[in-house]
Amino acid sequence: MSFQYTYDAKGRAVGVFIPINEWEKITDELKNAKNTKRHSPKKPAVLKSIKKGMQQVAQIERGKIKSIPLQQLLDEL
Questions:
Q1: Same structural domain for residues 17 and 51?
Q2: φ/ψ bin of 9: left (φ > 0), alpha (ψ from -120 to 50), beta (otherwise)
Q3: Are 28 and 22 in contact (CB under 8 A)?
Q4: For residue range 28-59, what is the model confidence (pLDDT) as tens digits?
Q5: Using an 8 Å Cβ cutoff, are 1 and 22 in contact?
Q6: How far apart are CA 73 and CA 53, in angstroms?
């Protein structure tokens, strides 16, 4: 990336010139990051999954359902 800086009278950087192709890359990356964040699981969905998992643990402890090996659990993720 080749940026050009603008300086004030005291020599402090106060601005930057970014070539348009670099600017487009940056804005595309920001848009992609926002889209990724938008489609990530929301807090209620995550909490619901955790609650379901805890209920399954309780059922395993009561002998209602059979546990699965750790490796199988990891493979399903």
A1: no
A2: alpha
A3: no
A4: 988 888 766 666 667 788 888 889 888 988 88
A5: yes
A6: 12
Residue among 68, 57, 1 nearest 29 (CA)? 1
Count: domains in the chain? 2
pTM (whole model) above 0.70:
no
**Domain shared by 36 and 49, yes or no:** no
Range of the domain at 14: 1-40
More confident position, 43 or 15: 15
Strands 13-17 and 4-7: antiparallel
List the beta strands (DSSP E) in the chain.
4-7, 13-17
